[in-house]
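Here is one chain, start to finish.
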Amino acid sequence: MSKLLIVGTVAFDAIETPFGKTDKILGGAATYIGLSAAHFNNVDSAIVSVVGDDFPQEYLDLLSSKNIDISGIEIVKGGKTFFWSGLYHNDLNSRDTLDTQLNVLADFNPVVPQNFKDAEVIMLGNLHPNIQISVLDQLTAQPKLVVLDTMNFWMDCALEELKQVLKRIDVLTVNDEEARQLSGEYSLVKAAEIIHTMGPEYVVIKKGEHGALLFNDNQVFFAPALPLKEVFDPTGAGDTFAGGFSGYMAQQGNVSFNNMKNAIIHGSNLASFCVEKFGTQRMEQLEKEEVNTRLQQFKMLTQFDIELTQ
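Its structure:
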């Protein structure tokens, strides 16, 4: 069994899209990553996060039922769980943050479970870079792969700390806007080259409904997103992608460009389910047969022989 350590938020979300709205529901980057990574056999995963004692036991039981180790989720007595509320516009590509309450996350000091300090794959979800550094400092063995997800907020307010983390990771996953901000380059090819000099050997640039790019030195791979008839709620799609990517890499146990190409397809495949219902609902009920059927659709979408003209 390979070990996957997931670091990120376990949270409450309140979401409004053109198709409806929710009150507080289960959310958080680590939640989506964990539910996605749970679809890969021979992978032991654990979440490091923090919640308040207002966090329902049924949500913790859900994570445990997916064979996710929750011993690294700290429960703060008398504390309130991180909360985010957002409103999506009609195109679902843009949104407004209505409310963010850090609550217990404001004083979060991560503690890595003893039996995961030697994890082969580390998935650092979107958090303050200092928290991500703290997790790396607690490891007792060099991981095979460290994947980092971040966002423009940390580029604005914690850039120097972020640069320190970048020196210690193997893969950076960002969207195209974030890649341009971090690198100062509009061309995504040039952006990836500059980010590579900051530390990451591999750069994954997510383009939402337009797929994802993988860069490694002079090698480039592009994976389209599966065309969907309906997108209900895009919340957590990027984290679900990260969970599929890191879960696949943990299952394979071998870091190579070819494996990462497959990891991007698996991540994109799982993310295509996430957007079909509010929050984590679709990922909670997702069956292996559905995942494999859609993987075949991805294969048909992307594989063909190009005939060269004479």
